[in-house]
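Fold in tokens:
===
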Amino acid sequence: MRLGIVGSGKIVKDFLTITNVLPNLSLAAIATTKRSKAVGQALAQQYGIQRAYDDYRKLLQDDGVDTVYVAVPNSLHFEIALAAIQAKKNVICEKPLVYTVLEAQKLHQAAKQAGVILLEAITNIHLPNFVHLKQDLPKLGPIHIVNLNYTQYSSRYPALLAGEMLPVFDPAKGGGALMDLGIYPIHLAGALFGEPNKVTHFANHQFGTDTSGITMLEYDDKLVSLIAAKDSNARCESVIEGEAGSLVIKGAINTLPQYRLDLRDQSSTSYNYNEYDHRMVNEFLDFIQIIDQKQVAEAERLFSESLTALKILEAAREKL
């Protein structure tokens, strides 16, 4: 994979720290805005990125790039991903993929026509712990109650309280608790249980944005509550409850650091199959393999999961 990165914010800097453990990855280029040109050049020098641009359109014209990692504010995802696809580049787009199901379908159709692969960067469903806990769910018997909690006090929350609207909170840029954190429990619920019959969302609003909220999913046989909070501090724990026992996820939903099975009339057992400390390693190992080996069927499967998550997210956003 010859990767071109669009963006130079927190997630890009986080990603670059793991590139040394990713095989078959060439850091071909990075593109920033003109305002952030110095940041892009500094990152290129630090991590051995071959070329630095101050306009993503220049990166899309680079024949040395075959895949574009779109890591910009949510409001720009659709525009830049579509332009990259039209330039016949594979696309890895940060979560949430786009705002709406219709936008996702347009990107998907454009990718098929261009003969390229479209992927959403969402960490949790690529982790080994996710694979194993999904396999362990039948041990719980029929499942009736689920609570998935991603509470993470935002380092930018004090700035919001002081009256500064940063992109991570700005609704005009796709910010807010639901779009930023809520996508993780939404993706997990969709991947485990599929599309619900009904979606309801309740949000806490401050300074014109949602700082925390609860999404309720109704299925034929179960109720699922999804918590996303950027204005609170809590030790995250999520519980899937069934007639034969429960599965407890210890820690944040985006990293799934470990889980415990508490089966009725049996002792508890804890598990951790994750191989890497950093949450992004497994997803990019998967992406490199999918793109290099042209695993279209796997890309289609993942897009189907992204579409399920977007249906839930879009329905929840209507309640904001």
User: Anything to note?
Assistant: The mean pLDDT is 97. The chain has two domains: 2-120, 125-279. Residues 125-279 form a domain with the Dihydrodipicolinate Reductase; domain 2 fold (CATH 3.30.360.10).
